[in-house]
Structure formats: structure tokens, C-alpha cells
User: Fold these one by one.
Assistant:
Number 1:
Amino acid sequence: FTLSDPDGSFNVAANLTDVDDTLDPNSTWDGKSLTKEGAGTLILSGDNDYSGGTTINEGTLVAASTTALGTGPGDNNATLVLDADGEVSAVGGITTHSGATTQLALGTSLELGDSALIQEDGSTLNVELNSDSVQPLITGGSATLGGDLVVSDASLQARASDAEFQSFKLMDMDSDISGDFTSLTMNLTDKPDYLTVTGTINPEDASEYLLTEGLSWNATATSATPAHGTFTLGAGDSFEVTSVLGDKTGNGDWDGKSLTKLGAGKLTLSGANTYSGDTNVQEGTLWLSGDGTIGEMGSQQAVNVASDATFGGSNGTTVNGKVTNEGTLVFGDSEETGAIFTLNGDLINMGTMTSGSSSSTPGNTLYVDGDYTG
């Protein structure tokens, strides 16, 4: 099928099946394979069972029925769009070559039988997801991954803490997945800057590929956003980090070990954090609770609290490092009496110190194991 007009399209609604290739002695066609040529779009919407395979050399082929691709292998050198509003059967497997794109439209999943999904280096797999998308989206015998993964239409749910993060099962194959995508592209421009999504082979089951919500702090090459240490929360918003924030490999925009709090909202750290860079509370509130710690024992890192910003901790929380306060330093929350907030380092105070976060609760202690200036 050759469609030369890049703006043109042709829909084959007939059912395509194998034919006797001996009927025309002058034909070089095998009677059972389909080849797409030209820059236009070919749409297959019939109930097809041809067995010789589908080759896309140019333009776009749209599989608009669940059996559009027949039973043979799919060989994609251009653009293959699976848009059948159901589970497309491609039991011969699909190979997406370098420079080509295979796309799963919203509402479409892919079943490869015992065959393989192969995404070569330089290829693109584009999947459209929403909250109603089935899991897993792709099943088959095996998968060899490379190139780019693009996720469209997906959104991140609001979470109260990282303990609520969830994963989407993109693939579930019969054998371990080999290779990996080199990048993940996902539009998260309207989402909190401290959240990202990472594509990864499931460490507990290498036959599965997951899209997992996570902190931008821990982002990798296959995350939707670069790694950084900024947490921006708007007025009235709050988020708790229960996991441990440790040093990461830096990049051109972040040293991999510093935290910046922006926005009028509240960020709570309840893990025993080991990152060694500065903590800059520029706006809003940064609070330590539970096992909340900044820095390892003996650390010389700095916590800098800007004017109009608030930093503090509940009973048993600790800062290992120097604190410079130009805003408000709070020890113990409004529900506590007898709370001890420990600073293992010098304290330079040019702001306000308060016992209790919403009132001047008596009986709390700020313990400073260092020099006090202020």
C-alpha cells in the first residue's frame, strides 16, 4: 500500500487474509504480507488474519481494530499507531527500529502472545495513559528496550506524603526484560516540582516495567524531570517526606546534596536524612518530626532560615550542623510539652525563637550543642 500524499489517508475496512500467491505468476508478492510505503496514512480497521507480517517503511499505519495487524511480525521503520479502543493482538511481535515510533492511543493495550516487543536504540514508544488505563498495558513473551519512552495525558495525584506513592504497571512479560529506555518524557509542568515519575524495571520482578511516582530528589535518567532539591509548596499545602534524603550525583543545576524550601506551604521531614549540603528555608515552613534529622553526626552543614520563613522540630528531632536563623525557629509543636529539639552545632539567631508552633507552649527545650550568637 503506497500513499504518497502526506496529508492523505486510506481506510481498509475489508478483512485481509492470506491468498494463493500462485494465482498471478507475474506477481512478486507472497500473498500474505502487507507493506506500507509513502508519507500518507493507512488505516486498517478490518478483522485481519493475514500471516506474513506487517512492514511500515514510510508514513503512518493505524491499527484501528484489535486484529488489524494479522498474525505475523510487525516491522516498524516509520510510525505505527495502535488505536483500537481495546486490546490489540500482535502475536507475531513488534520491532520498532531506530528513528521510528510505536504509539498506543488512549484506551488501547497491546498483547503480543509469546512474541517480543523490541524497541531499538533511537526508537520511541509513546503511550497515552489516564486513571482508567488497564494494567499492565503491554503483555507478551519478552521485551528488549531502548530509545525513548514518552507518556502522554497522564497526571499525578495529590499525595500527603511519599509513603502514598504508587506505580503503574506498563509491561508484564513472560521473561525478564532486557535493556532499558534512555529517557522518559512526560508533561509534569503543572505538578509540584518535588514530584516526578520514573520508568524502571521492577527490582522485585524483572519481567515487569513500572512507572513509579517519586521525589525529584531521587530522579534518574529515566525520570520525567531532572534531579533537584527544591520543594515548593503553596499556601495551605503540605507534604511529608518519610524516606531518607541522601546525597545524589549532582548535575548542572543541582549539587546533589542541598535542599531548598520555597512557597508558603509546609514541608515535613520525618526520616533520618544524611544529605550533606545546605538546607535553605527561604519561604514557608520546614519541619522535622518523628525520626527527623538533618545531617549525620559531626556534620558541618548549614541550615539557613530566611526572614518570614519558619524552621523547627518536634520532640527527638535533630540538626547536625550550624543553624542561622533570620526568621522563626520553633522547638516543639503545639501538642507537645517537654519536647527537646537538638541542634548539634552553632546557632546564630537574628530572628525569633518560639516554644510551640501555634502558641508559646511552656516546657519545651531547645538544646544547642555549640556556640550561641544572638
Note: The longest strand covers residues 208-215.
Number 2:
Amino acid sequence: MSSASNVQSPVKKDRKRRGGLSRLLFVVICLGLGIGMARTGVQLGGPGAILVAWLGVLLGIQLHVLLSLAASRWAGMGLVSMSVGTGRWLGSKRVAGRLLVFRPLPIVPFVTCMVLVRPRDGQGRKLRLWTTVAGVLGVEAAVAVLLAHSAVPSLGYGVGLLLIMTLVLRPGRVLSVFWTLFRLPFGDQEQRLEESSYAPAALEATRELLAGRIGAAREALGPPDGTQRWLGASCSLALAEGRFAEAAEQANELYERSAEPLNKAWALSVYAGAMADGVAAGHWQPHEALPQFARTMQEIRDTQPLLVRVTDLGAVESLLKQSPAQAAKQAARAAGMAPDAMSRARALCTRAVALAYLGETAKAREVLAKADTTAPGLDRVAVVGRLLDRTTVVTSP
């Protein structure tokens, strides 16, 4: 058994990032347009103008997704996963080597997750990215104008609102619309692009991890290539395979080497998972790892609060605080809203532990079987299985 105290926590209290300005701009624009449309409802298409405009926003989202997908090869982007519909997880399958998730609500019929792929020569990458984003926005603007002058002008205003929202949200994030249009062409941005780029091996390993194919991810990853994205895939794979110390060390390295918030969030979530899973597996003693887990969770809440809602970390925290009923609800919600198979399998494992706490052992085993089917070979499934066999759960003192 190694000591968790030998693995440095990635928490840095002086590195908090806020997105207050972009959120304020978003709220002001929405309120302004909403008030304006409410006051001039007749000109915009009658009393139902707000509803029609909302449909225009949804139309704008789908248009943006499809245009971005169509231009992805030119832009140097790679597709890693897809989703049909929104809402809770109904099922999934692999299509052309990518995870496809089915959800019940056809609010936005088709959603994609794409990432930047490292080019072989790097020539013209900035130009291709810039022209892609500018072209997509140009088409969206043209559609908004045409609809605004049609029989249903509110639809056009909705598409236009989505265009503005896309432009002003997260202006400082690499590959955001604002950053690509107004920052990418100026100065040396190659280092920031490189931090967000996937080499082919890391890209393929990430696709396999998202689909819950741990063995295939191991085969695809290959040797280190020096990039943060390879390091992120490697620490995620180490966590999935139960190599907790290695996962924590690589997560800490990823955090230290990264400037981008998404990479830091990735590192924090893997580190917290390694601490919690390492204790549950008996790799570390609770007094060694749980304080570091608590500090990391606080950092996540301060800088990346969305992680608590879209992963099972909040449920794990509730378990450690001996609140199994709350943990069961949080884990069920995380499993239902999981963006990928690996996240869903981990959340199902956490829910199984919570159900065992509540005395629902049969249901816990049923949930654990779903986790095993979702991500075969996931070490957490074996750990939880042993806990259920002993009807013992590791908790904080």
C-alpha cells in the first residue's frame, strides 16, 4: 500500500477563474431582447412571438451543430461522440467508432462533441479555424436575416439571439467563437492551440474511453507524445484500470502544465476520483487520502462547479459524509445525465454503493451489473462488487 501523502494535490487556491463578465453580457442581452420583443409583439408576429423566438434559438443551435460538423474536416476538428435528443440517458451504441447516446427529448435533435486535432505540418491551421468559424457565423447571420423578413420574423430573431449568445459567451476560452475570431489571428497563439490539440493516438484513446472500451483505449493510447491531451487520456485510463497513484500523479502533472480551464477541470476530477477510489479499494487509508479529496472538491466548487452536477463526485462526497439517501439521488441523476459511457458507469457504481448503504442489496447488484455492461473492465465495478460482498463501505471518520 502506497501513501497518498506522497501524491501532491493539484489544488492551487490562487488560480480561480471566473466568467462573470460573459455571464453578465449574456443576461443583459437576453433581458434586453426579451423586453423589446414583449413590447413589440405584434410586429414580431403576435402574442406568441416569445415562444416562436425560443424555437428559433433551438433552430439556431441545430444549425450551428450541423454547419460545424460539415466544416470540421477543413477546420481540423475531430468528432469524438454524438447524442440524439436531450435529457436522461436511454441507451447508446458505437457508430463509425464514435459513441452515440440516445436521449428522450427531441428539443435539439442532434448534438456533437468535437475536438481539435493536431495537424501533421501545422501549416494554415489558424487560417482554417478562423475561416470556418467566420463562415459558420456568416451562414447563421444570413439565415437569421432571411427569417426575420419572412412570415415568422420571431424565428429569425431567435436564430439571431443564438448567434449573439454564441459570440459573447466564454470569450477568453480557447476555440470559443469570440477567441477564434478576435484573438487567434493576433499574436502567437500556437501554444494555446497545442494545449487543446489531440494527436491521433490520444484522440482514438479518448473516443474509446468515452465509449467505455477500456481495453481498446489502452491499445490505442501508445507512448507519451508530450501533450496535455495525451496526459489527460492517460490519467483517465489509469483511474479506470485502478492504478490510483499513477492516476493521481498524472492528474497533478496535467494540472500544473495546463493553462486551459478544461484541462484543469479534467485533472481535478481524475485526482478526486483517484483519492476516493483508492480509499474504497484499500490502496490508501482514509486519513491519508480523504483530506486531499475534500480540498480538491472545494477547488472544483470554486472553479468548475459544473463538474459536481454532471459527474458522480457530489454523490461520492455525500457517501463520505454518510448521507446515502442523498448520494443515491445524486448518483442516479449523474448516471442519467452522463455525457459518456465511462461517466455513466462510474455514477452507476456510486449509486450501487449508496443503495447497499440503504439496505437495497439486490437493487444495488442490478445497478452494478449495468455499470459492468456499460464499461467492461472498469476497476471501480470490481471494487464495489467486493464491498457488496462484504456489505461494508469505507466512510470518512
Note: Residues 13-18, 392-397 have pLDDT under 50 and may be disordered.
Number 3:
Amino acid sequence: LECDGQVYPLDPNMILLRDSKLRNTAYIYGVVVFTGHDTKVMQNSTKSPSKRSKIEKRMDYIIYTLFALLLFVSFISSLGFALMTKLLMADWWYLRPDKPESLTNPTNPLYAWVVHLFTALLLYGYLIPISLYVSIELVKVLQATFINQDLKMYDSESGTPANARTSNLNEELGQVDTILSDKTGTLTCNQ
């Protein structure tokens, strides 16, 4: 670094990283290098995404599909009701199509379509299993409880039982078939 004709050395010992606190000095001169969102510090400071199991991803896909089906069925049934109101309702005298505020008034099929669309969405709303998420979470909590209370999942050498800290990925445990470890014995304690 050169300032006012004088050269100052810069080396890795003189670096202040993000969130560092400077003490025991009144001021410093600094040079800002490697800034922005593409730096290593910024890339590592973002919050990691939450892990989702295959069952949760599949369940979301099914719910979205059922919601699209709900919209499609409601739209088609409302369209059929509006067409029936326009074409056939005048013949059905017992539904009182002559009343202007009636849902079956053949002169206003758009009103009948909109009202029937909301009615169909309410009626067919049971197609989407809202309690499915609650049921899956309850099963996960029970699985974590069973893991914590399992006497066969106990290490007698260290005296530690199994401890399920989270219930997010219980169903993925059965998918593990290979454990990779480095040569330092991190997982095996050199045994």
C-alpha cells in the first residue's frame, strides 16, 4: 500500500474480517478488498435451507395437484351451471327463474357462474386433506419419542442413549446404507 509517497506493507496478519471488533487504538487506516456478495465470508453467512424429507416433498406435490384439481372441477361445474342457467332454467318454473335477484335467473348467467364458483370451492374444499400435515407431524414426534426410548440404541461404553434432537428426517434414516468417514476416526474413534 502506498500513501503520500510512503510504502506500507500488507500481509494476512493485518486483516480484519466482517464483524471484527477493533480495540486498544483510537483509529486505523484501512483498505477495503474483496467486498460484495460473492466473497467467501458473505457466501458462508447465508442461512442454510431447511432440510425436507422425500415424504414432505411428495406430500407438497400431492397437495398442489389436488388444489389444481379443485380449481379445475370448480371451474367446470360453475361453467356448466352457468350454461344450464342460460339455456334451460326458463323451463324449470319451480326454481322461480322469473325473480331478478334469483341465482337461477337466465338473464344473468355471469352472476350465477361467480356465485356457483365460490360455492363449488367451498363444497369441494374437502378434497384437500388439511389435517394431513398435522398427522404427519404427530407421527414424526412419536417416532422421535420411540427413538429416544429405544433401549437397543444405547452406547454402553460412553453411557449415552439415542437422542433425536429433531424429527425432520426420521423417515430418511432407513435410506442410509453407507457411512463415509475420514482416516482420523471421527466416527469410529479409531476402533
Note: The chain has a mean pLDDT of 81.
Number 4:
Amino acid sequence: MDIQQEKKQLRAQMRQILAVLSAAERIQASLAIAERIQSHEAWKAAPVVLAFLPLPSEVDLGPLLDIALMEGKTVALPRCQPDHSLRFHQIQVGYQCALCAGPYSLQEPPQAWPEIDPTKLPADSLVLVPGLAFTATGSRLGKGKGYYDRLLAGIPPRVLTIGVCFAQQLLEHIPVSEHDKPVHLVITERQIHC
């Protein structure tokens, strides 16, 4: 079996695992993950945080984004582009009321909001990355379109990338291709892996 077939099978398995999690389990785990991120030393120093709005099966970082905004951090959320790249737009307090429907049933910030260039992030910024699965060493399995691999390929060296997932999404091995980009840390509700 080639690597693409392995990834396809693993994606299907991970979707089944995530489908079993109840809404209450997701909420509780999401809050614990947000607390772990906020307690990490890198959070305190981060001037800019690139984050994401969750699909129903993903970690919800909404409360953490509100805290980041209250702390005066610059926070930006992605808009999916037709070329499978992401453009990040800065959000403000109350951003939830202005979100737009995007592809893949995602919510996105309005295109008119100020854009943040991920390739020019200041040192010590954070990039919070979703995925279907991660390993403790930072390998990541996305949904297969390459949005976050493209993003991670252009992130400056002094910016910390953090994979965000539920403990059930942490695996010992993930098949990786040459274009698959790892993250520096992986944070679940149970542990921080680096």
C-alpha cells in the first residue's frame, strides 16, 4: 500500500474515532487544552497568535482567543483560498458576530479585515494548528488538501507551531510525505508533547 492510501485509511479511522466523542467531552477537553496552551511559557511572550475556528470534530479554542484579545495579543483567523492556501485576518473582541460562511462548513473572518502575513510574523509568535492526528514528535495528518502544510512551510524560524488535538488523536506513527511539515509541540487535554 502506498503512503497516500495509508493516509486515506488513517483519515477514515480518525474520523470514526472523533465521531464517538460526545459534545460534553469535546467541550471539557477543549477547555483543558486551552488552559494548557495559556499556561505554557510561550503564550506569555507571544505578540501574535494565528489560530483556527473549529469544525464540529475539532478542538474549540474560542475561549482562548477571547483571552488573547483581552491580553492585547494580535489574533488572526484563516480564510481558505481557491489555491489551497490560507490568508489570515486579524480579529477583534466580538468577532463572532461578523463571521462568514466559508468552504468545508467553516466559519471565516470577513475578507475586509486586516490581513496578517504568516511569513512575516514577529519572533515568539504562536501558530495553533488543527489536524486529524499527530504524533508526540510533531508529525501531523491533515485532511488532505495541504492548507496547513503550505502555511507551515512559510513560517519564520522563531515562531512556535503547536498542534492542537484531543488525546484520542495522538498516535505513535503517522505516514508522512516529503511535503508534510511537522509542528514544534503537540498539546492535548492530558499533556504537552515536544
Note: The two ends are 30 Å apart (CA to CA).
